[in-house]
TrEMBL record:
This is Prepilin type IV endopeptidase peptidase domain-containing protein. The chain crosses the membrane at residues 29-47, 59-92, 104-127. The lineage of its organism: Bacteria, Bacillati, Bacillota, Bacilli, Bacillales. Residues 1-88 form the Prepilin type IV endopeptidase peptidase domain. GO terms for cellular component: plasma membrane. It comes from the Bacteria. The keyword Nuclease does not apply. Signal peptide: none annotated. Belongs to the peptidase A24 family. GO terms for molecular function: aspartic-type endopeptidase activity. InterPro entries: Prepilin_IV_endopep_pep (IPR000045), Prepilin_peptidase/N-MTase (IPR050882). One of its GO terms (biological process) is signal peptide processing.
Length: 131
């Protein structure tokens, strides 16, 4: 249920260096993605009164540097969908109780990996399906 700051702190300079060497297009997308990841989860934390932890917020800020603005929003959506499907499954099979907390970090990581490798394809598919 905890995402250690040591792990996040280890990857922060690596991801910043990666984006300085190979910036996203537009160049400010990494910065906007980091702020969006932090701000959106901060609002969720405040509204849920601690239902989600600050580690998730810091992880999304870190992932915003890597993914950029569009893809960090996609990763948030996919992680919520994965978490909802798994959570409903755990409830249906009575693995957890309704009030029992479930860690969100694994769903964030899985969604971020999916977004990193297939994000452009998913975004193009989504916008093409709207037309």
């Amino acid at each position: 249920m905890l995402i250690p700051n040591k792990i996040l702190g280890f990857f922060l300079p690596l991801f910043i260096t990666m984006r300085v060497i190979q910036p996203l297009e537009p160049w400010w997308s990494s910065i906007a993605g980091a702020f969006a990841g932090i701000l959106i989860l901060a609002v969720i934390i405040l509204m849920s009164r601690g239902g989600m932890g600050a580690g998730d917020m810091k992880l999304f800020g870190l992932l915003g540097i890597v993914l950029g603005l569009e893809k960090v929003l996609l990763a948030l959506f996919i992680s919520c969908m994965i978490g909802a499907v798994v959570g409903i499954g755990l409830l249906l099979f009575k693995v957890i109780d309704r009030k029992q907390p479930v860690p969100f970090g694994p769903y964030i990581v899985v969604a971020s990996v999916i977004t990193y490798f297939f994000g452009d394809t998913l975004i193009i598919w989504y916008f093409n399906s709207l037309m």
